[in-house]
Design a protein that fits this description.
Length: 140
């Protein structure tokens, strides 16, 4: 029961995070600091999509563990890649929506690149963590 609650809790957090990211991407922007080079903006994009991808990967990983499904390393890799690709497609859709349904935002290819970078980094982080934990378990 406790594990199921953890799985559901992460699902709720992931959904709320996705909704907040959608709303934050489509509402009128607030300029907190003047960053003429926009590095901070791109770091925020990468961080937001790192968090998005990480939450959904964590949810799927815990869900499979709770259901006691036997999953191979190849299956885990496939699941994680599908989630990362979905996050990247989501980011592209958001950028397109910024250009079509708002008149105060414009789509930006650099934002897509930053979003993609964040998702790929989350994917790699999760894969490294899982490989490292499996190596540690096999040693002890």
């Amino acid at each position: 029961m406790r594990q199921l609650l953890g799985h559901k809790f992460i699902a709720v957090i992931a959904v709320l995070y996705t909704i907040a990211l959608t709303l934050g991407s489509l509402i009128r922007p607030v300029h907190l600091i003047d960053d003429p080079v926009t590095y901070l903006d791109k770091l925020l994009h990468a961080g937001a999509y790192f968090g998005l991808t990480l939450l959904w990967i964590l949810w799927k990983y815990i869900k499979n563990k709770n259901e006691a499904k036997i999953v191979t390393q190849k299956t885990i890799l496939t699941m994680f890649i599908v989630i990362a690709v979905c996050a990247i497609i989501y980011g592209i859709i958001i950028e397109l929506l910024q250009g079509t349904i708002t008149n105060y935002r414009t789509p930006d290819g650099w934002d897509v690149l930053a979003n993609t970078t964040g998702s790929v980094l989350a994917l790699l982080t999760c894969l490294l963590y899982i490989n490292k934990s499996k190596m540690l378990k096999s040693k002890f």
